[in-house]
Amino acid sequence: MSELEPLFDETFLRKLNRLSLVVHKRRSGQLKGERRSTKRGTSIEFADYRNYSKGDDLRRVDWNIYARLERPFVKLFEEEEDLSVHLLLDASKSMDWGGGNGSGSRENNKWDYARRVAAALGVIALGSGDRLNVTLLNEQDGSDRADAPTRFGPARSKGQTLPLLRFLTEQEADGNTDLNRSLHRYALTARRPGLLILLTDLFSPTGYEEGMSTLLAQGYEGLVLHTLAPGEVNPPLAGDLKLVDVESGHEQEVTIDSGMRSLYRQRLTAWQDEVGRWCGQRGVTYMPVTTDVPFDQVILFHMRRRGLVR
To answer: Boundaries of CATH 3.40.50.410 in the chain?
Structure first.
Protein backbone atom coordinates (compact mmCIF):
# COMPACT_ATOMS: atom_id res chain seq x y z
CA MET A 1 0.00 0.00 0.00
CA SER A 2 2.83 2.41 0.76
CA GLU A 3 3.97 2.29 -2.88
CA LEU A 4 0.59 3.56 -4.03
CA GLU A 5 0.26 6.45 -1.61
CA PRO A 6 2.56 8.95 -3.37
CA LEU A 7 0.20 8.94 -6.36
CA PHE A 8 -3.23 7.82 -5.13
CA ASP A 9 -4.93 5.46 -2.71
CA GLU A 10 -6.44 2.03 -3.14
CA THR A 11 -10.03 3.34 -3.17
CA PHE A 12 -9.31 5.44 -6.24
CA LEU A 13 -7.43 2.52 -7.79
CA ARG A 14 -10.55 0.35 -7.55
CA LYS A 15 -12.57 3.04 -9.32
CA LEU A 16 -10.03 3.15 -12.14
CA ASN A 17 -10.23 -0.60 -12.65
CA ARG A 18 -13.88 -0.21 -13.66
CA LEU A 19 -13.07 2.24 -16.46
CA SER A 20 -11.66 2.02 -19.97
CA LEU A 21 -10.30 4.53 -22.47
CA VAL A 22 -12.52 5.32 -25.44
CA VAL A 23 -11.13 5.47 -28.97
CA HIS A 24 -12.83 6.35 -32.22
CA LYS A 25 -10.45 4.82 -34.75
CA ARG A 26 -10.77 1.14 -35.48
CA ARG A 27 -7.75 -0.95 -34.52
CA SER A 28 -6.83 -4.54 -35.24
CA GLY A 29 -5.53 -7.32 -33.07
CA GLN A 30 -6.94 -6.90 -29.54
CA LEU A 31 -8.29 -9.90 -27.64
CA LYS A 32 -11.96 -9.99 -28.51
CA GLY A 33 -14.31 -8.45 -25.98
CA GLU A 34 -11.59 -7.07 -23.71
CA ARG A 35 -11.91 -3.40 -24.53
CA ARG A 36 -15.01 -1.28 -24.57
CA SER A 37 -15.06 1.00 -27.57
CA THR A 38 -17.31 3.09 -29.78
CA LYS A 39 -16.53 0.61 -32.60
CA ARG A 40 -16.66 -2.89 -31.18
CA GLY A 41 -15.97 -5.62 -33.73
CA THR A 42 -18.27 -8.61 -34.14
CA SER A 43 -16.35 -10.84 -36.53
CA ILE A 44 -14.31 -13.81 -35.30
CA GLU A 45 -12.69 -14.52 -38.67
CA PHE A 46 -8.97 -15.20 -38.38
CA ALA A 47 -6.81 -12.40 -39.80
CA ASP A 48 -3.16 -12.69 -38.77
CA TYR A 49 -0.63 -13.44 -36.04
CA ARG A 50 1.51 -11.23 -33.87
CA ASN A 51 4.30 -11.96 -31.37
CA TYR A 52 3.19 -12.87 -27.87
CA SER A 53 3.60 -10.11 -25.29
CA LYS A 54 3.64 -10.47 -21.54
CA GLY A 55 0.07 -10.20 -20.30
CA ASP A 56 -1.59 -11.69 -23.40
CA ASP A 57 -4.32 -14.27 -22.83
CA LEU A 58 -2.71 -17.70 -23.19
CA ARG A 59 -5.92 -18.98 -24.74
CA ARG A 60 -5.05 -16.96 -27.84
CA VAL A 61 -1.62 -18.52 -28.30
CA ASP A 62 -1.37 -20.85 -31.31
CA TRP A 63 0.28 -23.85 -29.67
CA ASN A 64 0.74 -25.66 -32.98
CA ILE A 65 3.00 -22.88 -34.23
CA TYR A 66 4.76 -22.81 -30.88
CA ALA A 67 5.50 -26.54 -31.19
CA ARG A 68 7.03 -26.01 -34.65
CA LEU A 69 8.92 -22.74 -34.13
CA GLU A 70 9.38 -22.72 -30.35
CA ARG A 71 8.14 -19.11 -30.36
CA PRO A 72 4.71 -18.02 -29.08
CA PHE A 73 2.36 -16.21 -31.45
CA VAL A 74 -1.10 -14.81 -30.71
CA LYS A 75 -4.00 -15.17 -33.13
CA LEU A 76 -5.64 -11.98 -34.40
CA PHE A 77 -9.19 -11.70 -35.65
CA GLU A 78 -10.84 -9.20 -37.95
CA GLU A 79 -12.57 -6.19 -36.41
CA GLU A 80 -11.07 -6.81 -32.99
CA GLU A 81 -9.29 -3.94 -31.37
CA ASP A 82 -5.70 -3.78 -30.30
CA LEU A 83 -5.19 -0.41 -28.67
CA SER A 84 -1.75 0.92 -27.96
CA VAL A 85 -1.85 3.75 -25.41
CA HIS A 86 1.05 6.21 -25.53
CA LEU A 87 1.42 8.52 -22.52
CA LEU A 88 3.94 11.29 -23.21
CA LEU A 89 4.94 13.45 -20.23
CA ASP A 90 6.72 16.74 -20.68
CA ALA A 91 9.52 16.34 -18.12
CA SER A 92 11.14 19.74 -18.57
CA LYS A 93 12.07 21.91 -15.61
CA SER A 94 9.13 24.26 -16.23
CA MET A 95 6.80 21.40 -15.32
CA ASP A 96 8.30 21.19 -11.82
CA TRP A 97 6.59 24.38 -10.75
CA GLY A 98 3.48 25.46 -8.89
CA GLY A 99 3.01 25.76 -5.17
CA GLY A 100 5.91 25.94 -2.81
CA ASN A 101 7.60 29.20 -3.71
CA GLY A 102 10.19 28.43 -1.06
CA SER A 103 7.77 27.12 1.54
CA GLY A 104 8.57 23.48 0.85
CA SER A 105 4.97 22.73 -0.16
CA ARG A 106 4.34 21.09 -3.53
CA GLU A 107 0.64 21.85 -3.63
CA ASN A 108 -0.48 22.51 -7.21
CA ASN A 109 2.90 21.38 -8.59
CA LYS A 110 2.47 20.61 -12.30
CA TRP A 111 4.87 17.66 -12.34
CA ASP A 112 3.20 15.93 -9.41
CA TYR A 113 -0.19 16.56 -10.97
CA ALA A 114 0.81 15.28 -14.42
CA ARG A 115 2.30 12.12 -12.93
CA ARG A 116 -0.91 11.39 -11.02
CA VAL A 117 -3.07 11.88 -14.10
CA ALA A 118 -0.68 9.76 -16.19
CA ALA A 119 -0.67 7.03 -13.54
CA ALA A 120 -4.47 6.97 -13.47
CA LEU A 121 -4.71 6.75 -17.26
CA GLY A 122 -2.03 4.06 -17.29
CA VAL A 123 -3.91 1.99 -14.71
CA ILE A 124 -7.08 2.24 -16.81
CA ALA A 125 -5.17 1.09 -19.90
CA LEU A 126 -3.56 -1.85 -18.11
CA GLY A 127 -6.87 -2.89 -16.60
CA SER A 128 -8.46 -2.93 -20.07
CA GLY A 129 -5.75 -5.10 -21.59
CA ASP A 130 -4.34 -2.26 -23.68
CA ARG A 131 -0.68 -2.04 -24.62
CA LEU A 132 0.77 0.80 -22.54
CA ASN A 133 3.83 2.92 -23.30
CA VAL A 134 4.95 5.78 -21.05
CA THR A 135 7.71 8.15 -22.20
CA LEU A 136 9.23 11.22 -20.57
CA LEU A 137 9.99 14.03 -22.99
CA ASN A 138 13.12 16.03 -22.19
CA GLU A 139 16.68 16.27 -23.48
CA GLN A 140 17.21 12.68 -22.33
CA ASP A 141 14.09 11.22 -23.98
CA GLY A 142 15.07 8.02 -25.68
CA SER A 143 18.10 7.68 -23.42
CA ASP A 144 19.21 4.26 -22.25
CA ARG A 145 20.79 5.53 -19.04
CA ALA A 146 20.42 2.81 -16.43
CA ASP A 147 20.20 5.32 -13.56
CA ALA A 148 17.29 7.27 -15.02
CA PRO A 149 15.11 5.29 -17.43
CA THR A 150 12.75 7.52 -19.35
CA ARG A 151 10.47 4.86 -20.78
CA PHE A 152 8.06 2.32 -19.33
CA GLY A 153 6.60 -0.46 -21.43
CA PRO A 154 5.27 -1.68 -23.66
CA ALA A 155 3.32 -3.39 -20.90
CA ARG A 156 -0.03 -5.13 -20.59
CA SER A 157 -2.20 -6.55 -17.81
CA LYS A 158 -3.05 -5.42 -14.28
CA GLY A 159 0.10 -7.16 -13.07
CA GLN A 160 2.08 -4.18 -14.40
CA THR A 161 0.26 -1.66 -12.20
CA LEU A 162 2.79 -1.55 -9.38
CA PRO A 163 5.79 -1.30 -11.74
CA LEU A 164 4.02 1.58 -13.51
CA LEU A 165 3.35 3.45 -10.27
CA ARG A 166 6.90 2.83 -9.08
CA PHE A 167 8.31 4.13 -12.35
CA LEU A 168 6.29 7.35 -12.24
CA THR A 169 6.98 7.94 -8.55
CA GLU A 170 10.73 7.81 -9.16
CA GLN A 171 10.84 10.27 -12.08
CA GLU A 172 11.89 13.91 -11.86
CA ALA A 173 11.41 16.86 -14.20
CA ASP A 174 14.54 18.72 -15.25
CA GLY A 175 16.29 20.19 -18.26
CA ASN A 176 14.63 21.43 -21.43
CA THR A 177 12.03 20.03 -23.76
CA ASP A 178 11.84 20.84 -27.45
CA LEU A 179 8.34 19.49 -28.01
CA ASN A 180 8.56 19.52 -31.81
CA ARG A 181 11.81 17.57 -31.79
CA SER A 182 10.69 15.17 -29.07
CA LEU A 183 7.36 14.41 -30.72
CA HIS A 184 9.01 13.97 -34.11
CA ARG A 185 11.59 11.60 -32.61
CA TYR A 186 8.82 9.62 -30.94
CA ALA A 187 6.99 9.29 -34.25
CA LEU A 188 10.17 7.84 -35.80
CA THR A 189 10.94 5.36 -33.02
CA ALA A 190 7.61 4.24 -31.55
CA ARG A 191 5.68 1.34 -32.98
CA ARG A 192 1.98 0.56 -33.20
CA PRO A 193 0.15 3.90 -33.47
CA GLY A 194 -2.78 4.27 -31.12
CA LEU A 195 -4.17 6.68 -28.55
CA LEU A 196 -1.54 9.32 -27.75
CA ILE A 197 -2.00 11.47 -24.63
CA LEU A 198 0.39 14.39 -24.20
CA LEU A 199 0.65 15.99 -20.75
CA THR A 200 2.49 19.29 -21.02
CA ASP A 201 2.45 22.98 -20.18
CA LEU A 202 3.29 23.68 -23.86
CA PHE A 203 6.15 25.97 -22.80
CA SER A 204 8.36 25.15 -25.76
CA PRO A 205 9.77 28.01 -27.87
CA THR A 206 9.66 25.93 -31.05
CA GLY A 207 6.01 24.97 -30.56
CA TYR A 208 4.39 21.57 -30.85
CA GLU A 209 2.52 21.67 -34.15
CA GLU A 210 5.06 20.05 -36.47
CA GLY A 211 5.78 17.19 -34.10
CA MET A 212 2.12 16.52 -33.43
CA SER A 213 1.34 16.67 -37.16
CA THR A 214 3.96 13.97 -37.77
CA LEU A 215 2.28 11.71 -35.22
CA LEU A 216 -1.19 12.33 -36.64
CA ALA A 217 0.05 11.48 -40.13
CA GLN A 218 1.14 8.10 -38.81
CA GLY A 219 -2.33 7.31 -37.50
CA TYR A 220 -2.19 8.36 -33.85
CA GLU A 221 -5.34 9.61 -32.15
CA GLY A 222 -4.34 12.61 -30.06
CA LEU A 223 -5.31 14.13 -26.71
CA VAL A 224 -3.48 17.15 -25.28
CA LEU A 225 -3.83 17.79 -21.54
CA HIS A 226 -2.58 21.36 -21.28
CA THR A 227 -1.45 21.55 -17.66
CA LEU A 228 -0.95 24.91 -15.93
CA ALA A 229 -0.62 25.97 -12.31
CA PRO A 230 -3.01 28.57 -10.84
CA GLY A 231 -0.14 31.02 -10.47
CA GLU A 232 0.44 30.84 -14.23
CA VAL A 233 -3.20 31.61 -14.97
CA ASN A 234 -3.51 34.41 -12.41
CA PRO A 235 0.01 35.43 -11.33
CA PRO A 236 0.05 36.79 -7.74
CA LEU A 237 2.69 39.37 -8.66
CA ALA A 238 2.93 43.14 -8.52
CA GLY A 239 5.55 45.88 -8.80
CA ASP A 240 8.94 46.00 -10.49
CA LEU A 241 10.23 42.46 -10.96
CA LYS A 242 12.91 40.47 -12.72
CA LEU A 243 11.46 37.28 -14.21
CA VAL A 244 13.78 34.35 -14.91
CA ASP A 245 13.01 31.47 -17.29
CA VAL A 246 13.70 28.33 -15.25
CA GLU A 247 14.85 26.40 -18.33
CA SER A 248 16.87 28.89 -20.36
CA GLY A 249 17.89 31.29 -17.59
CA HIS A 250 16.72 34.21 -19.72
CA GLU A 251 15.88 37.28 -17.61
CA GLN A 252 13.23 39.92 -18.25
CA GLU A 253 12.54 43.00 -16.15
CA VAL A 254 8.84 43.90 -15.98
CA THR A 255 6.50 46.18 -14.10
CA ILE A 256 3.28 44.43 -13.16
CA ASP A 257 0.13 46.37 -12.33
CA SER A 258 -3.57 45.72 -12.84
CA GLY A 259 -3.37 46.68 -16.51
CA MET A 260 -0.48 44.31 -17.14
CA ARG A 261 -2.27 41.45 -15.36
CA SER A 262 -5.37 42.06 -17.48
CA LEU A 263 -3.30 42.01 -20.67
CA TYR A 264 -1.56 38.83 -19.52
CA ARG A 265 -4.88 37.04 -18.95
CA GLN A 266 -6.14 38.15 -22.36
CA ARG A 267 -3.05 36.76 -24.08
CA LEU A 268 -3.24 33.53 -22.10
CA THR A 269 -6.87 33.05 -23.15
CA ALA A 270 -5.98 33.85 -26.77
CA TRP A 271 -3.13 31.33 -26.66
CA GLN A 272 -5.35 28.56 -25.28
CA ASP A 273 -8.04 29.38 -27.84
CA GLU A 274 -5.45 29.16 -30.61
CA VAL A 275 -4.22 25.77 -29.37
CA GLY A 276 -7.82 24.58 -29.12
CA ARG A 277 -8.56 25.63 -32.71
CA TRP A 278 -5.42 24.00 -34.06
CA CYS A 279 -6.21 20.75 -32.28
CA GLY A 280 -9.90 20.81 -33.20
CA GLN A 281 -9.17 21.25 -36.89
CA ARG A 282 -7.05 18.09 -36.81
CA GLY A 283 -9.25 15.88 -34.68
CA VAL A 284 -7.08 16.23 -31.56
CA THR A 285 -8.89 16.57 -28.24
CA TYR A 286 -7.69 19.61 -26.29
CA MET A 287 -8.21 19.80 -22.52
CA PRO A 288 -6.77 22.75 -20.60
CA VAL A 289 -6.51 21.92 -16.89
CA THR A 290 -5.19 23.78 -13.86
CA THR A 291 -3.61 21.96 -10.97
CA ASP A 292 -6.04 23.34 -8.38
CA VAL A 293 -8.70 21.06 -9.91
CA PRO A 294 -8.50 17.70 -8.05
CA PHE A 295 -6.77 15.30 -10.40
CA ASP A 296 -9.31 12.54 -9.76
CA GLN A 297 -12.06 14.87 -11.05
CA VAL A 298 -10.17 15.18 -14.33
CA ILE A 299 -10.51 11.42 -14.82
CA LEU A 300 -13.82 10.61 -13.15
CA PHE A 301 -15.78 13.68 -14.20
CA HIS A 302 -14.26 15.85 -16.94
CA MET A 303 -12.89 13.07 -19.14
CA ARG A 304 -15.99 10.94 -18.65
CA ARG A 305 -18.24 13.90 -19.53
CA ARG A 306 -16.29 14.39 -22.77
CA GLY A 307 -16.53 10.70 -23.64
CA LEU A 308 -12.81 10.01 -23.29
CA VAL A 309 -13.23 7.35 -20.60
CA ARG A 310 -16.20 5.28 -19.53
So the answer is: 10-23+81-227+291-305
